[in-house]
Design goal:
334 residues, 3-stranded parallel sheet, 5 strands, 51% helix, elongated
Amino acid sequence: MSEQPRKTILSGMRPTGRLHWGNYTGALANWVALQDEYTCHFMVADWHVLTTALDKTPEIRENTRQMYLDWLGAGLDPERSVLFTQSEIKEHAELALLLGMLVSMGRLERNPTFKEQIRDLNLSGEISYGHLGYPVLQAADIIIYRAHAVPVGEDQLPHLELTREMARRFNHHFSGARGKVFPEPEGLVTKFARFPGTDGKRMSKSLGNTIEISASPEDIHRKIKPAFTDPQRLKRTDPGDPEVCAVYTWYQKFLPDEVEETAAECRSAARGCVDCKKKLAEGVIEHFAPLRERRAVYEQDGARLDEIINDGCTRARAMARATMEAVHEAMGIG
């Protein structure tokens, strides 16, 4: 029997700086695993930074390079996956323009994710056209590669449903003798557990509570040392509650073989928080050592990194152009 062709997925990240443990556990580690099952396209979503952080434009180029280094260090393979930069593929913008004719303002305004951003960022009365149209560009990002699926958290499903609606509407209006132009992408839903930062709150650059996946051993020790533990455990001899401790959550992710013993020794006060953090730091340093080593190789060979980026963009551009040829033919324009 002939082997069935792999389905295609598309996902991306906004380049806002070096990636941290939350980015790794929430998306990047999953992307690395998906390479074994899918034809993968991973995009540095630099245009999307502009929707809410226009003042960060001077940082985007360097942040993009750092993101590629983190991706390659984590194990994304340019031989198996297409790694590319959104702004290098101008066809995304053309398709977004065309898709914008197929969705109403009201539909975009009802997007729950958009409403949450307006509330959380206090943007009432200062909403840009680009921010409102974010889901349209995101839809173009996905369907221009005719992706069958998108790895998402449950909170991102409303965005994906808009993508599906636009693909469906385009196919309804413009499918011709060659059939549907776009598949309707499904969501590969992953339940991302809340990943704590050093203060016990959700790990986020804006809160200053992150630890980078490329952090040096010295930085890991320094950042773990004051990290949030059980606030009720005031003395070394007090029993603790690991379920409220950020350090214990990190054990669960990075040192799973140590979880049971760690919880028992915490509850019985057989292990103090200082010793617990030291043991975690050593384990995490070892966990990320291969990542740091791979990252350093690419960082030291700038020409090779440029070659990987250029090759990925070239491959993505060829696919995007082929899709736009099909779009032009179906619409009778261009």
